[in-house]
Amino acid sequence: MDVSGLRVALFSGNYNYVRDGANQALNRFVGYLLRQGAAVRVYSPTTDTPAFEPAGDLVSTPSFPVPGRKEYRVPHRMSAQVRRDLKAFQPNLIHLSSPDPLNHRALSWARDHGLPAVASVHTRFETYPRYYGLAFLEPLIESMLRRFYRRCDAIVAPSDSMAQLLREQRMSYDVGIWTRGIDRDIFNPGRRSLEWRQSVGIEDDAPVIGFIGRLVMEKGLDVFSDAIDQLAARQVRHQVLIVGEGPAREWFQNRLPNAVFTGFQGGPDLGRAVASMDMLFNPSVTETFGNVTLEAMACGLPTVAARATGSESLVTEGVTGRLIRPGAIGDFADALQHYCDDGAARARAGEAARMRAERNGWDQVNQALVDTYLRVIRQRAQGMVLRSSPVP
Fold first, then answer.
1. Cα(217)–Cα(214) distance, integer angstroms
2. How many angstroms separate the CA atoms of 79 and 83, rounded?
3. Which CB contacts under 8 angstroms, 24+ apart, belong to 214-217?
4. What is the structure's pLDDT at 132?
5. Domains in the chain, CATH or no CATH each
6. Three-state DSSP state, 147
7. What DSSP line would sit under 267-279, residue for residue?
8. Residues of the chain with pLDDT > 90: what percent?
């Protein structure tokens, strides 16, 4: 079989109703599959106000809003309509992209029908409770994730560091890599615009510390704010540029009243905003890859990031940026001050980052996932059921 013989049923908790790095990667991948002649059917919650048009055919699934985070929805069951649609579509592989109730049901459906199942890991769900005062739940969530992923034929992670963590957590015996690509037409140093910086109130020669992403507490907004406070106390010249939207925006603006908040930026506008920064500050420990880090690197920016999964696979300590122990406010401030004060060091690290980002083209990284698909289908056909995948 080649890619044109694939019939993929993809299950997602958020395919297009709220924009994030994970679902943009999934949509790009579906587009790639369709261009290669594969058939794809996507099952996910939908809303009347999606963030963007979906790639491929999207089937709506029953869901309810997440308490306290109503912009997100939980797909809680596989309806009779979805089951009929699946049966008519006749997939030969199930792709699971979120360990929610619907994906659990889809995994059971795959097992009942003798189909291979591949799961992609997009975020570290087990770390989320710590941002809401519920850190004691982390071991329980990790155990639940292990039960889910071990029933899959294979799982894929977006970075080497995340893949290694999944192995250490005993999530699966078959952990592959599906990394992320970069659109170099959008993200490149040529997008930098002093005119745009001036239009949002940024001085031409001020070192700009940037944040890119959804404004939610699990992105490390508290750590970001505390480190910026230290720079101000040290009287380090800088300006802060925040690109993104989310429920924590009001908290973040109150915390950093002197920062420039642009709201959501997309496409060429996002490329311009990123390239117009001077460094990226990414203190989050929840990412499995860090799309924004790669985008910043492609624009020639050094990154100061938490030493965590994802960032460790992109940022080379002391070469393309700095990797700091998570939550070490003073060390984050030291690294940011270094790049604010030393323009030459900033330029060297930014050029090294740009060269590193050249490795990530979308077609190459998406073909790696296709290769995983074809391998697990072949193994199933040959009766090679992995230890991580109990016989149905």
1. 9
2. 6
3. 214/20, 214/244, 214/245, 214/246, 215/242, 215/244, 215/245, 215/246, 215/247, 215/248, 215/249, 215/252, 216/246, 216/247, 216/248, 217/131, 217/132, 217/248, 217/251
4. 66
5. 3-181+361-381 (3.40.50.2000), 189-357 (3.40.50.2000)
6. helix
7. HHHHHHHHHT-SE
8. 76
289-318 confidence digits (pLDDT tens) = 678 999 999 999 999 999 987 788 889 999
Decide if pLDDT at 238 tops 50.
Answer: yes
Provide the CB-side half-sphere exposure for 304 (13 A, CA): 28
- pTM of the predicted protein model: 0.71
CA distance 152 to 150: 5
Our CA dihedral for 158, 164, 168, 171, rounded to 10 degrees, sits at: 30
Distance CA 38, CA 31 (A): 10
Q: Which residue has the tokens 């996507």?
A: 42
Nearest to 17 by CA among 55, 61, 50: 50
The overall average pLDDT reported for the chain is: 92
Asked if 196 and 178 count as a contact pair (C-beta separation under 8 A), the reply is: no
Tracing tokens 């963007």 back to the chain, one arrives at 52
Q: What is residue 5's DSSP assignment?
A: G
